[in-house]
Amino acid sequence: MRVPIRHYLATTTVSTFFLILLGVYTGKIGAGLTCEARWPLCDGWMGLFPANWLSFVEWFHRLVAMIVGFMILGGAIMAWRRDRGRILKFSTSLAVVFLPVQVFFGANTVLNFGVAASMMHQFAAQMIFGLLVVSTTFAYAQAKFNGSESSQVHPNAKHADD
């Protein structure tokens, strides 16, 4: 069974929003400072396992970011494989382009903690989130335009969003 791209993108967008909230919490408590300017390592056993609450929050943020990053990449792949139109391909692809930028800025918040580093990291996050909102909105509009929103469709029928 193929997941409709609009549902996948909605899940990815909501996950990205929660990742941003987790990132705000991570920055607010200064969890990146526990890494003592060592990126990608942190404190704990061999620099890989959390030694305290702050390093746990930092590592958890990184784990969730990795999962959401792969979800974003999956959305772009779906848009291209299912030939979902230029707007959807462009917005999901641009979100993928911002992923390494976001990782770079995230590393910068650990290496050079400060307002500028945090603002650049947050800016990249908001760009990705905005592009995902555009993608999700367009995917739902496209499905509605193609008529796959109808609840009267037979469950085994071929939908326009498949």
TrEMBL record:
InterPro entries: COX15/CtaA_fam (IPR003780), COX15/CtaA_HemeA_synthase (IPR050450). It is a multi-pass membrane protein. One of its GO terms (biological process) is heme biosynthetic process. One of its GO terms (molecular function) is oxidoreductase activity. Pathway: Porphyrin-containing compound metabolism. Keywords: Cell membrane, Disulfide bond, Heme biosynthesis, Iron, Membrane, Metal-binding, Oxidoreductase, Transmembrane, Transmembrane helix. GO terms for cellular component: membrane. It holds the Pfam family COX15-CtaA. The keyword Disulfide bond applies. The keyword Acyltransferase does not apply. The chain crosses the membrane at residues 7-25, 59-80, 92-111, 123-141. It is found in: Membrane. This is COX15/CtaA family protein.
